[in-house]
């Protein structure tokens, strides 16, 4: 992307503001389960990581290998999340430039700023998972498609092929946005089909192998109309933001039914419907698997004000800021990604004695080992009945659970501490 002179500001301003927002309190929220999995799995020796990927999470293999190299330089929360910040900042810049090239300078500012303020953009910019990278690749692919259709240059088609292939390797389900690309390229289908067919080779091979690991997502429930509606709301940042941005999308379509505008609308609307259909056949339907659709709403907001008076540009940006403010604050608290496992681990470290054990649960399976990685005393990870050589047991349970935790039967309560979202208890034999 090369921009010069006055055309740089509509791209740089949203990108710089987005980067500052995404960096705000980057290391404050405690890691949640999936982020801790990134730290644990990417931190394996390379040989062990590759062996692990043959058994599970092959679809995350490219991300884990990249993070393996990244974590050679550190493993703090902010450092684990920094690649996502950089990826989402790149996505913001390309969102703004797509809008600039399609609808003008005013649209660029609006689209870039609305995207930067989107709660889900901040959420995944501050998460050590591949979603921000997938979003960035999706936006760059759309930008390259626009350039390829604009001047037909071979280099743009080659770049498009490479980026779509990378998107499929990073997140297979991100390729659902190709239905929007089909709409966008309907007047020049032949070069698009050639480029897309080449791009799908590597993802297709990956899909064959990851299908054998489908048991890892067997827990995902079948989609319903309610869960489909929740997915759309999640992508928008909540029901009110969905309603507001949907209104701007309708306005954009009413003002311009170009392939660019229609394709952008399909980008947001179609993938959730397609994945819901697939989810009826095999467990796959989760809102976060569709985050590659988020930039489309911001682009439509930009398109909606392109032909309106200049003062109207503040309306979608101001509305997005007002509706998203509380979420942007909440997700940056210590429990913004989930329970405060960091403080729970600190409590355990302070009270730990040699020979202690900790009950293995979904909460503790990867997060507690991350936060106790440098501790002098680490309780043994336990499942099932308490071994004879363990006299004290640490148990973590969500604060919404009432009563004595499972596994504490026959034991005496020694200590109880409550942190954000978790109750930490210590039990011992009578």
From TrEMBL:
Coiled coil: none annotated. Its main location: membrane. InterPro entries: LipidA_mod_glycosyltrf_83, RgtA/B/C-like. GO terms for molecular function: glycosyltransferase activity. It is a multi-pass membrane protein. Pfam families: PMT_2 (PF13231). Keywords: Cell membrane, Glycosyltransferase, Membrane, Transferase, Transmembrane, Transmembrane helix. Its EC number is 2.4.-.-. The chain crosses the membrane at residues 7-27, 103-122, 128-145, 157-180, 192-211, 232-255, 261-282, 289-305. Residues 69-209 form the Glycosyltransferase RgtA/B/C/D-like domain. It is found in: Cell membrane. It is an enzyme of class 2 (transferase). PANTHER family: MANNOSYLTRANSFERASE YKCB-RELATED (PTHR33908), UNDECAPRENYL PHOSPHATE-ALPHA-4-AMINO-4-DEOXY-L-ARABINOSE ARABINOSYL TRANSFERASE (PTHR33908:SF3). This is Glycosyltransferase family 39 protein. It comes from Tenggerimyces flavus.
């Amino acid at each position: 992307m090369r921009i010069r002179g006055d055309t740089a500001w509509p791209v740089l301003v949203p990108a710089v503001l987005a980067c500052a927002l995404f960096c705000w309190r980057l290391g404050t929220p405690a890691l949640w389960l999936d982020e801790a999995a990134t730290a644990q799995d990417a931190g394996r020796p390379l040989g062990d990581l590759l062996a692990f990927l043959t058994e599970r999470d092959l679809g995350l293999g490219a991300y884990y290998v990249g993070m393996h190299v990244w974590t050679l330089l550190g493993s703090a929360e902010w450092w684990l999340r920094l690649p996502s910040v950089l990826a989402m900042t790149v996505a913001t810049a390309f969102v703004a430039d797509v809008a600039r090239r399609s609808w003008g300078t005013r649209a660029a500012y609006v689209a870039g700023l609305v995207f930067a303020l989107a709660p889900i953009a901040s959420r995944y910019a501050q998460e050590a998972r591949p979603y921000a990278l997938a979003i960035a690749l999706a936006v760059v692919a759309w930008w390259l498609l626009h350039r390829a259709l604009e001047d037909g240059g071979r280099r743009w088609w080659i770049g498009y092929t490479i980026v779509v292939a990378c998107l499929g390797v990073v997140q297979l389900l991100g390729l659902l946005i190709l239905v929007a690309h089909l709409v966008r390229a309907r007047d020049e289908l032949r070069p698009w089909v050639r480029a897309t067919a080449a791009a799908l080779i590597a993802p297709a091979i990956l899909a064959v192998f990851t299908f054998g690991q489908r048991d890892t997502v067997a827990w995902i429930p079948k989609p319903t109309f309610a869960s489909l509606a929740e997915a759309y709301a999640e992508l928008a940042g909540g029901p009110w933001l969905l309603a507001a941005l949907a209104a701007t999308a309708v306005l954009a379509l009413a003002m311009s039914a170009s392939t660019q505008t229609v394709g952008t609308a399909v980008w947001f609307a179609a993938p959730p419907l397609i994945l819901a259909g697939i989810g009826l056949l095999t467990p796959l339907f989760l809102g976060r698997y569709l985050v590659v659709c988020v930039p489309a709403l911001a682009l439509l907001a930009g398109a909606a004000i392109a032909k309106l008076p200049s003062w109207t540009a503040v309306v979608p940006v101001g509305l997005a800021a007002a509706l998203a403010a509380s979420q942007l604050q909440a997700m940056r608290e210590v429990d913004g990604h989930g329970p405060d496992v960091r403080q729970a681990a600190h409590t355990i470290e302070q009270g730990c004695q040699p020979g202690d054990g900790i009950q293995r649960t979904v909460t503790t399976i990867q997060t507690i080992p991350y936060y106790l990685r440098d501790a002098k005393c680490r309780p043994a990870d336990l499942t099932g009945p308490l071994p004879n050589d363990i006299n004290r047991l640490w148990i973590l349970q969500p604060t919404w659970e009432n009563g004595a935790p499972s596994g504490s039967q026959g034991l005496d309560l020694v200590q109880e501490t409550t942190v954000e979202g978790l109750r930490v208890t210590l039990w011992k034999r009578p």
